[in-house]
Design a protein that fits this description.
Shape: rod-shaped
Strand order of the largest sheet: 1-2
Number of helices: 4
Largest sheet: 2 strands, antiparallel
Radius of gyration: 22 Å
Distance between the termini: 26 Å
Number of domains: 1
Length: about 100
């Protein structure tokens, strides 16, 4: 007898997590934009220290965006590994595991 197929709880949780990560990633990519733009304008602070500080701010802004993208990519990769449907018993086992009741 074949077991009924149901939505994979891990797949569903990963889709939710991906939406949250994509939203957060967008916020992160914009986090320092105003400050970087202000520093690049030359109207906020000038001189050698300002140039050095502005370059460091820009580098951190870029790095933060890259890291946020890597988080999204890791979730997307894991989502591709999870089938959208599993058997009922597999889904029950996954729910127990996700709840810490292994």
């Amino acid at each position: 007898m074949t077991e009924r197929m149901v939505p994979n709880p891990r797949h569903e949780r990963l889709k939710q997590l991906l939406r949250e990560a994509e939203y957060g990633s967008q916020e992160v990519r914009q986090a320092y934009q105003r400050a970087v733009g202000a520093m690049q304008s030359g109207k906020v602070w000038t001189g050698p220290t300002a140039v050095k500080w502005g370059a460091e701010l820009e580098a951190r802004h870029q790095r933060l965006g890259q890291l946020a993208r890597r988080v999204v990519e890791a979730i997307e990769e894991e989502l591709r590994r999870q089938p959208p449907l599993v058997t009922e018993s597999e889904a029950d086992a996954m729910r127990r595991e996700m709840a810490g009741r292994v």
